[in-house]
Specification:
The chain is an alpha/beta fold and 393 residues long. The protein is 35% helix and 10% strand. It is built from eleven helices and nine strands. Helix 3 crosses helix 4 and helix 3 packs parallel to helix 6. The radius of gyration is 25 Å and the shape is globular. It starts with 38 loop residues before the first helix and ends in a 16-residue tail after the last strand.
Length: 393
């Protein structure tokens, strides 16, 4: 493919591998920023030096130290402040647990090594934990203590993933999880071409965080909305028709003026998951949460004109028929008097067949429907095309 200036979301898009997306990052001297050496650290260093000298001067008289005389274990980083940068990192890891140090570097706009040191300092305080995968750096997640500290400082967000439990890593889903986190990190940093798909200017950093909706949250709220007790089986089941009836009810409340359109999804979060009145999966998926949504509902004016962005991260080839199911559901929502969820679905991928499938479907649909889909490439932290090696994120 010939390298030329990229035009985001065009059907014949090229990418300049010599111009990293993240080239505006600056090296952060972590030790010089907001870090103080605590008194116990200084004392421990002095005690160690003294012990070495004593041993060197009189090797025949080993030191005898009682438990009461031992110095407490010294902390390495001794953090005493909690900054907006820390807040952003903990909040990001609540929504997208198991991120790499490089991905947090994107979020913080600092180099990977500086991000890693900051994460080690937060782990020293018990605010984050780390999972290890052989051949990779640590994968970071916010702990309950970190979540509680965010709440203490006024950051409470129900649209998060479940708190990660150490040792529960699913390697089979890790590549897709890391790719989704990569897309989210670049959005937060203001380094994503997805922002160019909407006329609404996307915020960045802390201002964007409450607008990002992860898939786990959508799954949870859809299950709550669509669940009912089945008397025949004696258990709770998910009923897509019940979800559709909820959409119709909410649409009627908006049309009657009882519910502001900008609050429809906020008060009924189960509606973020695409669903349709058709039971046949040959026509449309009954339950399709996006991998990620950017919530722009505060700017919504009318029921039939959604403004939010749905994002699908695809690491494997897709048939145009698979994409068509999503489009059918989106069109059906507009036709059947329910609540259309997103204005457009953006496919993010490194697989050429994905771009080909999106282009074929756009050409097939024609008219306004063709604007329901877009596509862009999945890039790594340096702005280069993703190679398929998830362990390098």
């Amino acid at each position: 493919m010939t390298n030329k200036p990229a035009t985001p979301y065009s059907d014949e898009q090229s990418y300049d591998d010599e111009a990293p997306v993240m080239d505006f990052f600056e090296e952060e001297s972590y030790e010089d920023e907001e870090v103080e050496i605590s008194a116990p650290t200084q004392t421990a260093k002095r005690a160690t030096i003294g012990a070495v000298r004593t041993t060197e001067n009189d090797a025949r008289q080993p030191m005898k130290t009682t438990a009461s005389q031992r110095e407490p274990a010294a902390t390495k980083y001794g953090r005493k402040v909690f900054t907006d940068k820390d807040r952003l990192g903990l909040w990001f890891l609540l929504k997208f647990p198991l991120a790499t140090s490089k991905q947090l570097g994107i979020v913080w706009k600092i180099k990977r090594n500086s991000a890693h040191k900051r994460l080690l300092a937060l782990r020293e305080l018990g605010l984050v934990g780390s999972e290890e995968v052989i051949g990779m750096t640590q994968l970071w997640f916010t702990t309950k203590k970190g979540k509680d500290l965010l709440a203490f400082y006024g950051t409470e967000d129900e649209r998060i993933s479940r708190l990660y439990k150490l040792g529960s890593l699913n390697l089979g889903k890790l590549a897709h999880r890391l790719a989704t986190t990569q897309v989210a990190a670049q959005l937060v940093a203001g380094a994503s071409a997805i922002a160019k798909t909407t006329e609404i200017a996307l915020p960045t950093g802390l201002d964007l965080m409450p607008l990002l909706i992860p898939e786990q949250y959508m799954n949870s709220t859809y299950g709550t909305m669509a669940s009912r007790f089945d008397e025949t089986s004696g258990r709770t089941v998910v009923d897509a028709q019940q979800a559709w009836r909820t959409q119709e009810r909410v649409a009627q409340e908006v049309e009657s003026g009882r519910l502001p359109v900008s609050q429809a999804l906020a008060q009924n979060p189960g509606l973020w998951t695409l669903t349709t009145d058709y039971a046949s999966r040959s026509y449309a998926n009954q339950n399709h949460p996006f991998d990620l949504v950017v919530d722009l509902e505060a700017h919504r004016q009318t029921l039939d004109a959604p403004v939010s962005i749905g994002i699908e991260i695809e690491l494997t080839p897709k048939d145009p028929v698979d994409l068509l199911r999503i489009v059918h559901t989106m069109v059906r929502q507009r036709e059947r008097g329910s609540v259309p969820v997103v204005r457009r679905v953006i496919y993010v991928s490194h697989v050429e067949r994905i771009f080909k499938a999106v282009k074929e479907l756009r050409d097939r649909l024609g008219g306004h429907a063709r604007y329901l889909l877009g596509a862009t490439r999945l890039n790594d932290a340096e702005g280069e095309r993703y190679t398929g090696e998830a362990w390098r994120f």
